[in-house]
Amino acid sequence: MSGRSVAVTGLGAITPSGNSVGELWDAVAAGRSAVDVVEGHEFDGLPVRIGAQVRGFDAEQVLERSLARRLSPVQQWAVAAGEQALQHAGVGELPWDSRRFAVIAATGSGPIDAMQHATRDFDAKGPRAVSLTLSAYGAPDGAAAVLSQRLGARGPAHAVSATCASGAIGLGDAMRRIRHGYADAVLVVGMEDCLNPINLASNANMRALAAGYEDDPTAASRPFDRSRSGFVMAQGAGAILLEATDRAKARGTEVLAELAGFGESSDAHHATAPHPEGRGAADAVLACLADARCEPTDVRHINAHGTGTPAGDGAELAAFDTALGPAARTLPVSATKSSTGHLLGASGVVEAIVSVMTIRDGLLPPTINLDDPEFEGWDFVCGEARPTPVDAVLSTSFGFGGHNGALLLTAAR
């Protein structure tokens, strides 16, 4: 590790588990599931009709009506979460040179609903029915552009896309910008909304989703359990403000945690299946520890990717065995997608938020629905939260295409 240390100073969240960080953390720590039967006639007839939806969010309480009407819901959530993070950090007028403040939107698909709606309008009514705002707001970088304009951030504003590893990789890119002197602060917003009939049908046809839980949707997400059958789609956004630690302390703001290490890799193996031995995932974890100049024994807790897919869970544990050695089986492991569902490209940011709260409160969040663990010799945090002081949490994110990201969050020094 070289250069400046990187502080976490602000958090924001619009998720199925709550529309603030406090609500999100309360739900996850209590082991409350956000999964339910999805609302809307458009989901009728689908083979899978469960998911974790954002509820109770009113965009016009956050945005001007004219802007709210131009943005997709996923962009509304991203802007709201981003502004929550700045407020949490005590930022009103920018305390940094605006040219050294960057915004990154991390997402697998961006505002995919905008293109789907435009396609339907075109097919039904012709070209003049297509919204003229599609070109401006219909791409993955749109939320970053809107946030940069609202905040007066003149540094880079763009999107990072690496399927379900997007959030972790966006945070890692931001950390490097600060560490190596290209920025003083970066706002990272993870955002995703693939909870629509087309994406549900595609993933169901791939047999990637947990199916057959319409009568008991809260039991569907079952990471590491012998009866797991797939992941549960979720939507939402999370935001983290990163600052150079020296700048954060100089302006008197609280340092919630530090982002001490980051590693990324590719499996170079398959379009959807992970490498069966977790080869690429292990590479990302090893790179993360090397980046932080930490030994496996320095890690105190793992917030696992843990989606509940038959192949993915086993590959992830194999990666921990490879990268962490004997220490792997001594570390408590939580898989919080069991509560929140899988927010895809936003999950890395949301789970980094959970990791920060884990360090703050000394409380390891539970993996719910883990009634019959398939994998022996692991210390899974099951059923209910476990009070345990920790000062270093490894948070992992892996995605289709073989994308891998790992983060090490530590207590403020």
Automatic annotation (TrEMBL):
GO molecular function term, any single one: 3-oxoacyl-[acyl-carrier-protein] synthase activity
The organism's place on the tree of life at top rank: Bacteria
PROSITE patterns the record matches: KS3_2
Cleavable signal peptide: none
Ketosynthase family 3 (KS3) domain location: 3-411
One BP annotation, GO: fatty acid biosynthetic process
Stored SMART domains: PKS_KS (SM00825)
InterPro entries reported in the protein's UniProt record: Beta-ketoacyl_synthase, Ketoacyl_synth_C, Ketoacyl_synth_N, PKS_Beta-ketoAc_synthase_dom, Thiolase-like
Keywords on record: Transferase
Similarity remark: Belongs to the thiolase-like superfamily. Beta-ketoacyl-ACP synthases family.
Protein name, per record: Beta-ketoacyl-[acyl-carrier-protein] synthase family protein
